[in-house]
Amino acid sequence: MNRQKRRTGRRHPLATVALLAIGLIFTGGAYAALSAGTTAQAETDLTSQQTIDEGKKLFQANCATCHGLSGEGTGTGPSLVGVGAASVDFQVGTGRMPMQMQGPQAQVKPVQFTDEQILQLAAFVASLGPGPSIPPAHLVDGGGDAANGAELFRINCAMCHNVAGAGGALTEGKFAPALTETSGVHIYEAMVTGPQNMPVFSDMNISPEDKRDIITYLKYVQDNRSPGGFELGSLGPVAEGLFIWIFGLGAIVAITVWITAKSN
Amino acid sequence: MAQDDHSGAELTAADSSHAAHESDASPGTALIVQDAFANPGFPPHRPRVTDEDPKREKRAQRTVYTLFYLSALGSLWAVAAYMLFPMESNNVGDVRLNNLFIGLGATLALLALGIGIVHWGKAVMVDVELVDERHEVGGSPETQAAAAKVFADADRESGFTRRAVIRNSLIGALVVFPLPAVVLFRGFAPQDELPVPLLSHTMWRKGTRLALDPSGVAIKASDVTIGSAFHVIPEGLAELEHGKLEEKAKAAVLLMRLDPSELNQLPERESWSYDGIVAYSKICTHVGCPVALYEQHTHHLLCPCHQSQFDVANHCEVIFGPAKRPLPQLPIAIDDEGYLIAQSDFTEPVGPSFWERH
Amino acid sequence: MSTASPTTGTQKRSFTTAAAVYVNERTSVAGFIKELGRKAFPDHWSFLLGEVALFSFVVILISGTFLTFFFQASMAEVHYDGSYVPLKGVEMSVAMASTLDISFDIRGGLFVRQMHHWAALLFVAAIGLHMLRIYFTGAFRKPREFNWVIGFTLFILAMAEGFTGYSLPDDLLSGNGLRIIDGLIKGIPLVGTWISFLLFGGEFPGTQIVGRLYSLHIMLLPALVIAFIALHLVFVVVHKHTQYAGPGKTQQNAVGPPVLPVYAAKAGGFFFIIFGVIALIASLFTINPIWNYGPYDPSPVSAGTQPDWYIGFADGALRLIPPGWEFVWLDRTWSFNILVPLIAIGIFIVLVLLYPFIEAWITGDKREHHIADRPRNAPTRTAIGAAGVTFYAGLWAAASSDILATHFSLTMEGVIHALQAVVILGPFVAFFIAKRVCIALQKKDREIVLHGFESGRIVRLPGGEFIEVHEQLDEYDRWRLVSFETYEPLMIRPNARGKITVGQRFRASLSRWFFEDRIAPVTKGEIESGHGGHH
């Protein structure tokens, strides 16, 4: 009797719901565990001549076609004199450079160089002229004031990147990328160098401490899933509306069909 | 079907209720097809498996009460989850668990209950279809006549039609009667203020320093590097006790520095910028969203709400989207200490257009 | 359960019987139960869509009542000191802070808040789908025209409820939404500036708006919604539900399971299912994460700032206006970039609202209709509906132009230009396609009735020819395919004074357009003469 009862229960749509719920919880947990990765900074001296020379070789082999043999720029790529090590670390470290093709803006791709090679390239470009350097670890550790960072983020960044860092559209096919996976170092470097069409946020505009707070906030958002459950891409009401029409109302219409179908 | 309405004889196949009424309303341009098929009447009743197989019926019953027990279990689980998943730790993850488990408990309670009741109705309750007779919504001619008589009697007894002066004065009074209520709505906004002067001025004055939003720290011209964008409020706004948001809603400014060679300024506004530094109202001239998506190479400003685009290099004229007017420019200069200051207020109202604006 | 039939005499009665008698003698409820309890309620899945709306509204009332116990509709500034770390110490209104407290400091509060918001989205969506069902099956025809108007008014009221609720937390998203409303109102000629001034209690944003919207949201609008729902349901009882054509079903009967018990069980169970689905969504999916948006501040804005879906069409209409539609004339500003969308939407709403009367005028049909049409059997109506849906969908999609651009790697300018074309040309294309599809489907129905359906059996004839055997429909299946009406266009006839008025001509040309290319149902004569020769 008992056995049979359980079997009938298992046939029920509830079983699917329960399975779904369990699946979702585990996925959520696994995701949270995985997203705790950090960027390791290789111990490389950016000022040593040997590093610069190694970087120069890499540069001439991989970058000179567009940026010129000594980074002076050509018709297809801008001059890199004075862009600083931060710019190289950001552009190459996120896979945007070397570019595969011209487009509205450089796309994120798998990174082409090792961490050490990126630092060598950065060292070489930094030697061409003074520019923003790679930030020290304590500014990108996420140990600042998240509330201050959140407010600064809303005022200076959210109009392009969305309040939850989900990204957004710009003109003519350009876009502000999502910041949901971006490392603290790269966020910092983007602020000081202004890659693509992003404005530059100098230290007089947003101080290094404030930048640290912004990174702290973004890390908070990256590390803490939404308390309400799945975020639906953090895209706001559009995603919510689509969800309720397709899945909410879709499921309910399926139920109405079941309710009015003749029982078998 | 409809044509049956008018060729009553063919209805016999349908059911016995057709004789109830015969409408003489106009069918409009509908064709009455004489040769139409007759309604074949109800198809034979098809029994359910639970009607034929007592085992299946027993099983359906078991399913129903199992679901009800499950529902009670879900309710209890939600109560337990309320206690088992506290969220007083300042930790978002705990809120997530609290929401999830209370929610799933409630879900189980509700879905099991609902599915159980429906299943009971579908599989266990007697499967019977009833046939109701419809009547014309307007009621029988007798009822209609009786209603008309009530009105006629009431009119005669009250003299509503006959006593025209009384009636018309009543209507007049009723028309005037809501006016005081309408006037009261003036109190929705302060009595001593008018909208147009408020909309025409902002907090900016000659000599007001440009300060960072939100900290209120004044900005030096030398701090503004090429390619940067500063979100600016008037100095002193951050310290306002009252009306801070109202002032900010008008006074918010975006400060950008372009290579002066790329800046194409109107002749009369050449003195409004300082060494490639320009300041524009951040409030869209369409419907007022903050326009702050600045692209440092194209010099385009984009409004995220309705996609109006403004060209900063060309005095913020509209290049795309529903806005018409360029963003108002704030004339700026530097003071003795090198801080950026406003030369005056905006020379036109900022933000969305309004009727009295010209 | 014992039955509650009142017994006469003094023999012992069960408790339920006694209670029923007690109640009835004080309420006369027996009359209602006798009248309504065994009403037949036609059964079809699409007849439950209105119930989805009704039940989600009940969920909204229940969850909303809970929220009122915690929400404080004040715009006084406080420094947040609740649990959510990235907002600690931030200046915000009491409304925002209390909404955060509901989310982070009251156990189950976030669950109720999310249920309330999800249920609101579902409420309006279900009304929309319900309206589509009514429209495409012609269930708005006499005697139900008023109920269409009442239902459509409910749709508008639901949108107003939704928008006022969306604005209450005073977060960045809703604040920018209100800012758009403010800009929209200011664009109205003559009165706009003053309406905005009065609505916000002075300058935008002021300190009044949340409290005022709260009064609307929890008192005035719900009272109206409840009143209109009551009226709507009274009319459903008065008219009895429509039914689809089927064997045995006529204009004079209503066929279905009785209200008590089967319909009551299905509807009652369905309420809990709707409640459960909303609860499931609320426990698994975030909605309106105000903690991300932060408090309203006129300076920031988020990428992807959109209204909830049901206001999207209005937001989209604003986005689609090309540059430059604003003029100064007579020393006053004429904001056609705002007026044109407002007027276009206004006309659209009025047309939808009045559609039953327009169609009745065109067809001149004054009979009652209780059998719902299959959409294909009213091709022009279906095509008009498809055009309307396309127009609405184009506006709606425009509200997400930025998100369409980023997610499909398009330029936002391209998306906007494409959607401008969809909104202007799309309805014509949709009209044409829908009408042709309907007629093709009608022809297929005729074909099946005349020649039967393909049985899948291939037979070789003595002459060597292979044919597939067609089987005739039984009379019940055939009835579903032939029981519809056909109309001919209105003829122009002189009126009593022997004149042909312009109105007459207009009506006749509309009628010609409405009934052109119609397909008549198969008649008995056709099947007898057409059938024999084929096989």
TrEMBL record, chain A:
It is an enzyme of class 7 (translocase). Residues 50-129, 144-222 form the Cytochrome c domain. Its EC number is 7.1.1.8. It is a multi-pass membrane protein. It holds the Pfam family Cytochrom_C. It is found in: Cell membrane. InterPro entries: bc1_cytC-su, Cyt_c-like_dom, Cyt_c-like_dom_sf, Cytochrome_c_Oxidase_Subunit. Residues 1-32 form the signal peptide. The chain crosses the membrane at residues 242-261. The keyword Membrane applies. Keywords: Cell membrane, Electron transport, Heme, Iron, Membrane, Metal-binding, Repeat, Respiratory chain, Signal, Translocase, Transmembrane, Transmembrane helix, Transport. It catalyses: a quinol + 2 Fe(III)-[cytochrome c](out) = a quinone + 2 Fe(II)-[cytochrome c](out) + 2 H(+)(out). Its main location: membrane. It comes from the Bacteria. The keyword Signal applies. The cytochrome bc1 complex is composed of a cytochrome b (QcrB), the Rieske iron-sulfur protein (QcrA) and a diheme cytochrome c (QcrC) subunit. This is Cytochrome bc1 complex cytochrome c subunit. It comes from Agromyces allii.
Automatic annotation (TrEMBL), chain B:
Residues 1-57 are annotated as: Disordered. The chain crosses the membrane at residues 64-85, 97-118, 170-189. The keyword S-adenosyl-L-methionine does not apply. Residues 250-341 form the Rieske domain. It is a multi-pass membrane protein. InterPro entries: QcrA_N (IPR045603), Rieske_2Fe-2S (IPR017941), Rieske_2Fe-2S_sf (IPR036922), Rieske_Fe-S_prot (IPR014349). Keywords: 2Fe-2S, Cell membrane, Disulfide bond, Electron transport, Iron, Iron-sulfur, Membrane, Metal-binding, Oxidoreductase, Respiratory chain, Transmembrane, Transmembrane helix, Transport. Coiled coil: none annotated. It is found in: Cell membrane. Belongs to the Rieske iron-sulfur protein family. Iron-sulfur subunit of the cytochrome bc1 complex, an essential component of the respiratory electron transport chain required for ATP synthesis. The bc1 complex catalyzes the oxidation of menaquinol and the reduction of cytochrome c in the respiratory chain. The bc1 complex operates through a Q-cycle mechanism that couples electron transfer to generation of the proton gradient that drives ATP synthesis. This is Cytochrome bc1 complex Rieske iron-sulfur subunit. It comes from Agromyces allii. The lineage of its organism: Bacteria, Bacillati, Actinomycetota, Actinomycetes, Micrococcales.
TrEMBL record, chain C:
Its cofactor is heme. It catalyses: a quinol + 2 Fe(III)-[cytochrome c](out) = a quinone + 2 Fe(II)-[cytochrome c](out) + 2 H(+)(out). The chain crosses the membrane at residues 52-71, 117-136, 148-168, 214-238, 270-291, 338-362, 383-408, 414-434. Pfam families: Cytochrom_B_N_2. It is an enzyme of class 7 (translocase). Its EC number is 7.1.1.8. Residues 19-245 form the Cytochrome b/b6 N-terminal region profile domain. Keywords: Membrane, Transmembrane, Transmembrane helix. This is Cytochrome bc1 complex cytochrome b subunit.
